[in-house]
Amino acid sequence: MLNTLHIATYNIHKGFSHFKRRMVVHQLRDNLRTLNADIIFLQEVVGHHKGHAARFENWPGRPQHEFLADSVWTDFAYGKNAVYDEGHHGNAILSRYPITRWDNVDVSAHRFESRGMLHCEMAIPGWKEKLHCICVHLGLFKRGQSQQLQALEQHIERLVPQHAPLVIAGDFNDWREMASRILVEQLKLMEVFELTEGRAARSFPAALPLFRLDRIYMRGFQVEKTQVHQGKPWSTISDHAALSARMVRS
């Protein structure tokens, strides 16, 4: 029976370096493979963009989540959130294990920020219950974040069985560290870096992380190891650091 799960989360900045100086999606794919994660939660994933495809000779011919998954992560899901004339982007989850069901829920607080939460159910070999994974990218403003966290809480209470293993990861934009008040105190989840380091990880900006914006919350696991992937080469492919956690099913 499989009982160890390796999780990672990363805001990939639409496949461009900091300040969008370079297209780095090929380097990004190489870096993601070095993580050797079972499941990766991605934010700011481009599903389609006509302008980039015309401008960059080596722009992938497939949506970014498919290009990044390639032959390593056999299952994937993409939640389209922001739609514009040139294309669209959103969240994605890449998985080594079968995704048996997925849904993308619109949690936009206003029309200037299109946000969603991507919810996948996965069949893990030997597990009686499905693993529930939710990828989020919350808004920039306090009021919108509060509404989105309430929507996330209601979604979990309605659709995730109480004893089912659950992982919520992504870019919370949580400058004020509000998320734990709902996810930890009310839903009884734990943030993996709070368990190992005493506080959520510094993840932004990637070159020298100061702000604790990205998180991995879970229940039904014990945490073996956590890591912040910062500095070079990570800081050359996104403005966020990647986070990872190795967890054991409890």
Describe it for me?
By secondary structure, the protein is an alpha+beta fold. The protein has one domain (4-249): Endonuclease/exonuclease/phosphatase (Deoxyribonuclease I, Chain A, 4-Layer Sandwich). Helix content is 21%, strand content 36%. It contains six helices and twelve strands. The strands form two sheets. A six-stranded mixed sheet has the order 3-4-2-1-12-11. The protein has a six-stranded mixed sheet with strand order 5-6-7-8-10-9. Strand 7 (131-137), helix 4 and strand 8 (166-171) form a beta-alpha-beta unit. The chain is globular.
Secondary-structure blueprint:
Blueprint: E1 4-11, H1 25-35, E2 39-49, H2 50-55, H3 64-69, E3 75-84, E4 87-95, E5 99-106, E6 116-122, E7 131-137, H4 142-159, E8 166-171, H5 179-183, E9 190-191, H6 192-197, E10 214-219, E11 221-229, E12 242-249
Parallel strand pairs: 1-2, 7-8
Antiparallel strand pairs: 1-12, 2-4, 3-4, 5-6, 6-7, 8-10, 9-10, 11-12
What would you give as the CATH superfamily? Endonuclease/exonuclease/phosphatase
What level of helicity do the residues show? 10-25%
Assembly state (oligomeric) = single chain
**Helix count, per DSSP?**
6
Q: What's the alpha carbon Rg, rounded to whole Å?
A: 17 Å
Question: Could you tell me how far the N terminus lies from the C terminus, measured between alpha carbons in angstroms?
Answer: 13 Å
Mean pLDDT: 91
Spans with pLDDT under 50 lasting ≥5 residues? Answer: none
Keywords: Endonuclease, Exonuclease, Hydrolase, Nuclease
Domain Endonuclease/exonuclease/phosphatase: 8-240
Protein name: Metal-dependent hydrolase, endonuclease/exonuclease/phosphatase family
Pfam family, one: Exo_endo_phos
